[in-house]
Design brief:
The chain is an alpha/beta fold and 476 residues long. The chain folds into three domains: 2-97, Udp-n-acetylmuramoylalanyl-d-glutamate--2,6- Diaminopimelate Ligase, Chain: A, domain 1, CATH 3.40.1390; 101-314, Mur-like, catalytic domain (UDP-N-acetylmuramoyl-L-alanine:D-glutamate ligase), CATH 3.40.1190; 325-475, Alpha-Beta Complex (Protein-Tyrosine Phosphatase, Chain A), CATH 3.90.190.20. The protein is built from 16 helices and 23 strands. It is globular.
Length: 476
């Protein structure tokens, strides 16, 4: 139990009706999760306005309401707190309720279109290998040391986020590596968190269904760096067009990384991971590690034993599940599963395969998710067609859309003569089986889009589906 007055510390309050000394048992953003003596924060969303549930949560036992607009009918025994922004208030209140755990460990945010999950996972793996207690918040799983917990979304809501960080503190974690999505910045899920540093991987076409324009998407990423403190660090990949822009207004110490230009970090490494995209990921991991562990200027790291220690540990890092994950058949057909679901990610993966395939063929199976950014559909189909010897277009989580409509959108990116090396197969099981049946000795099969996901979502129903299991069924 917490005193309400402590929970609302540092939020922007407009007016108060009721007792601030009342004790509260929890904070809730969802009317379904109310328990006796909860404080309910009414969030106005794109679809549902939490203010309509105020009477309902009071009946369920809530004793305090944080709201943004009215009209409000004040009831005896209930404390009402009007604030300028309930989204912002929710993050700050969650931090207060759980003892501001982000201030008790070194929290590093990873943002960008591609590479967030790989960078966060490799950092967690690296720091565990180096003997540190560390947490991770990501798209695939959340981790506290070696324990894994299912991740519902890339960046959790502020209540679950602070609860998870508090558990990390309780388990002795020194560091936490956290994927920061553009959605979480816009929706202020990270409000009130104390970041020790941040890294920008890249920015390419994605999420325009939410942000509407690439400029809005870019600025959402940039706002994360703008909020970093003077005492923190900000690292950006300056081979990306938006790298320098990300750092332009940050108060944190600025660092750059590059494979092609003079930068603070452009070291070479030995690694089990392949592909240029992984070279960027590894370089980012190295930059974060040396700044966290040694706090040294990069120019001095060539002669710093700490930098060598990190490089040595990087040699042992393993590929992340669903990120260029591969198997090979007795006929030496290589099957690759990758989460590539943006044009840039798909191009990078296919570029890597084409660099290693010699004279063999590349057979690609790709799809695009439903109820998501439609502008990338024809672009991804065109990339798959141009960079593969044979292309199969199929379903990838149609969600609320008809699979046929999604595939029609994708086909708009194909040339008129595409029939000679393209097939349209709606059923993903059948599409993967078909790719395996036409592959010959030494060929490469890419199954792109779902990666680590273990389900297929159609009309709100999720059924079990694992791309790697499907490949293994037909190849091994």
């Amino acid at each position: 139990m917490k005193i309400l007055n402590e929970v609302i510390d540092n939020i922007k309050i407009i007016e108060i009706h009721g007792n601030l000394e009342t004790r509260v048992s929890s904070i809730s953003l969802n009317s379904k999760n109310i328990e006796p003596r909860s404080v309910f924060v009414a969030l106005e969303g794109n679809i549902i306005d939490g203010h309509v549930f105020i009477d309902e949560v009071i009946e369920k036992g809530a004793t305090a309401i944080v709201y943004e607009h009215g009209p409000i009918e004040f009831k005896n025994g209930i404390t009402y707190i009007k604030v300028a922004d309930t989204h912002s208030a929710a993050g700050i209140m969650a931090g207060n309720f759980y003892g501001n755990p982000s201030r008790k460990l070194k929290l590093v945010g990873i943002t960008g279109t591609n590479g967030k999950t790989t960078t966060a996972t490799l950092l967690h793996q690296l720091f565990r290998d180096l003997g540190h207690k560390v947490g991770m918040i990501g798209t695939i799983v959340n981790k506290i040391n070696d324990e894994s917990y299912e991740a519902v979304r890339t960046t959790p809501d502020p209540i679950n986020l602070n609860r998870l960080l508090a558990e990390m503190v309780d388990h002795g974690c020194e560091y936490c590596f956290m994927e920061v999505s553009s959605h979480s910045v816009c929706e202020k899920r990270i409000e009130g968190l104390s970041f020790f540093g941040g890294i920008f991987t890249n920015l390419t076409l994605d999420h325009l269904d939410y942000h509407k324009t690439l400029e809005n998407y870019c600025d959402a990423k940039k706002r994360f760096f703008d909020m970093l403190p003077v005492s923190g660090f900000a690292i950006a990949n300056i081979d990306d067009d938006k790298g320098e822009y990300m750092l332009s207004h940050t108060k944190a110490q600025k660092y750059t990384l590059s494979l092609k230009k003079d930068a603070d970090f452009n070291q070479r490494f030995e690694s089990k991971l392949i592909g240029e995209f992984n070279a960027y990921n590894i370089l980012g991991v190295y930059a974060v590690a040396v700044l966290l562990l040694y706090g040294d200027k990069p120019a001095r790291l060539d002669s710093h034993s700490g930098g060598d220690k990190v490089k040595e540990a990087i040699k042992n890092l393993e590929a992340v599940s669903g990120r260029f994950q591969s198997i090979k058949s007795e006929d030496e057909v290589t099957g690759i599963v990758d989460y590539a679901h943006t044009p840039d990610a798909l191009e990078n993966v296919l570029k890597t395969i084409n660099e290693i395939k010699s004279l063999n063929k590349v057979i690609s199976v790709i799809g695009c998710g439903g109820d998501r950014d439609k502008t990338k559909r024809p672009i991804m189909a065109r990339i798959g067609y141009e960079m593969s010897d044979f292309l199969i277009i199929t379903s990838d989580n149609p969600r609320g859309e008809l699979p046929e409509d999604i595939l029609n959108d994708m086909q708009k990116g194909l040339p008129a003569e595409s029939e000679n090396k393209t097939e349209i197969i709606i059923d993903r099981h059948v599409a993967i089986a078909r790719a395996c049946s036409i592959a010959q000795k030494g060929d490469y099969i890419l199954i792109a889009g779902k990666g680590h996901e273990k389900y297929q979502e159609v009309k709100g129903l999720k059924t079990y589906f694992d791309d790697m299991e499907e490949l293994e069924k037909y190849l091994l």
